[in-house]
Amino acid sequence: MDSGFIIEKFLLVAVIFGISLLIAMYSTYAERKVAAYLQDRLGPDRAGPFGILQPLADGVKMFMKEEIIPTTSNRWLFVVGPGLALLCACIGTAVIPWGSPMVIGDKVVPLQVSDINVGVLYIFGVVSLGVYGVMIGGWASNNKYSLLSAIRAASQNISYEIAMGLSIIALLLITNTLSLKEIVDQQHGWRWNVLYQPLGFIIFMVCSFAETNRAPFDLPECETELIGGYHTEYSSMKLGFYLFAEYINMFVSSAVMAALYFGGYNYPGMDSMAEILGPTWAPLFGTGIFFLKIFAFIFFFMWVRWTIPRFRYDQLMNLGWKGLIPLAIANIIVTGIVIAVIEKF
């Protein structure tokens, strides 16, 4: 294999990993600032100008805190749990196309780690694996509240993965591909899939809230019932790994929604912009547009958290099984009928 290809991919992986951690770190700052604005407060304002260094202070605090492992816990699984959660959160970025291929000299550099032809299935596989980190950590803690939280997280993820998968099937009927790169390229300009699949997008977005354990679906971390949830017994950087994993999952979910339904790096007038900026800078401009869409979704995640109260667990299950799944099946049927009629006439 060409050594240049390996170096290119290694650098791309390093950049994406660094950006993911940076966004996760400053999402904690943004969450506090959004909450403060909605509640008419200031939020963090001590560490640096406007509190901009607060995430760094929190990171140092996590590193410096004493690491406590309960004596009655399963030590090895207790350590593996948060690491697995963070790993599964990070590897989801591998198949996301961050921009169109850019030209550097006489070399074409794709802004995607791997364009596999089953990218959508890869994303679902990573999402399915992520819950194991929560389950292992909750069980290994040997704490009844942590175990109950882990069981809640597993049943919640299983329930909403079904509706999420069904919502994607209707989209695949339109795109005829499982490659995220091809799905994004089909949305050139204004041909965004959300215009053709508005119900599918709403179902997918609601399921994303449940899959990332974000309010109003944050039952695994219900403080009033479960103390701190599955990470009750965790401290130091192990707790930090769980918190980072949640924010990286939110970032990846926002990127997937932007790619599948809102055109990814496509935007109106991109052909004209490509002529102005050239083949090197135009892809980076598209990447910037993609990240603006991602940040809009992240803000929406935070806005919902401080706006809508938490569901009861029976309400959460009823919505998943009796609400979203029938809607997703109906959406598949209607989409299939419309496609069949269009193809016939």
UniProtKB/TrEMBL annotation:
Membrane topology reported for the UniProt record: Multi-pass membrane protein
Database matches in Pfam families: NADHdh
GO biological process: aerobic respiration
Cross-referenced InterPro entries: NADH_UbQ_OxRdtase_su1/FPO, NADH_UbQ_OxRdtase_su1_CS
First-tier enzyme category under EC: translocase
Subcellular location: Cell membrane; Membrane
Top-level taxon in the UniProt lineage: Bacteria
Protein EC: 7.1.1.-
The name this protein goes by in its record: NADH-quinone oxidoreductase subunit H
Species name: Pedobacter rhizosphaerae
Protein's gene: nuoH
